[in-house]
C-alpha cells in the first residue's frame, strides 16, 4: 500500500476500475476515509485496526460511495450541492439522465436494478462540507476544491501542506472525460481540469486505473485527456455531415463501444453525452432530425 506522509492510498478491485475507485485514508488521530470505492476487505481491515471516524465523499456516484454502508458509526459527509441529490433515488436517476431520456417509466425500471447497498450508502450521508474551506484533521489540512463538470458538485480534496490532490474522475483514462449525466457540463469539465493544473501540488492521485502522477506528468496527461472532447466533436460533426439521424448517431459509439449499448444505463449516458456535444456544436434535435441553430 502506498503512503504519502499521513495519507494512505487504498486501491479498489481491478486497479480501481469502475464500478470501484481508489480511496484515500487520513491516518491522523482523526481517521478520515475519502471515498469508499476501494476493496471492501481492505476497508474493513482498516476500520478494525485503526478505525474510521469520518467518511467524506467527493460526489454521489456509486463507484465512489458504494461502501459507505460498511461504516454506520462514522459521520458521513458529501459536497453541499449533492446533499440534496442523495436524499432520493429518483433525484439520482434524474441527474443521471434517466428521466430526461426515458421519463418516469424508465426511472421506475432503473430503480429496480440498483443494489440495495448503493441506495443505503447514499441514504445514510449525514451532512455536507463547504467548498474551498480548510479543514484540519489533527494537523492534516485539506481543502475540498469545487471542480464541477464531471458532476455539478464534484470536489477534489487538496492537501496544501503535502502538495497532494485527489483528482477523482479526472482520471486520465483512455476513455476520456465523463460528463454524461444531466448534471455534467463539458465547459465546466475543461475549466476545472485546467484549474487543477494551477494549484501547487507535486502529487496527483486519480480515482481510477492509472494512479499517481507528478505535476509534469499530470499536465501532459491533461492535455491528452481533454483533447478527447475535440475528437468526440469531430466524430459527431462528421456523422451529421453523413446525414445520420439522432437515433443513428446514438448507436455508433461516440463514448461507449456499440456492443455495450444494450446496457440501459450506458445507452442513457451515450445519448445524454451526445446531446451535450450537439448543443455545444450549435445543433438541436427535432423529431430525430439534427438541425443547426444557425439560420442561413
Ligand atoms: Zn463519478
Automatic annotation (TrEMBL):
Metallo-beta-lactamase domain sequence ranges: 20-208
Domain of life: Bacteria
InterPro entries in the cross-refs: Metallo-B-lactamas, NDM-1-like, RibonucZ/Hydroxyglut_hydro
Lineage start: Bacteria, Bacillati, Bacillota, Bacilli, Bacillales
Source organism: Bacillus weihaiensis
Protein name: MBL fold metallo-hydrolase
PANTHER family tied to this protein: METALLO-BETA-LACTAMASE DOMAIN-CONTAINING
Entry GO MF terms: hydrolase activity
SMART domains: Lactamase_B
Keywords: Hydrolase
Signal peptide: none
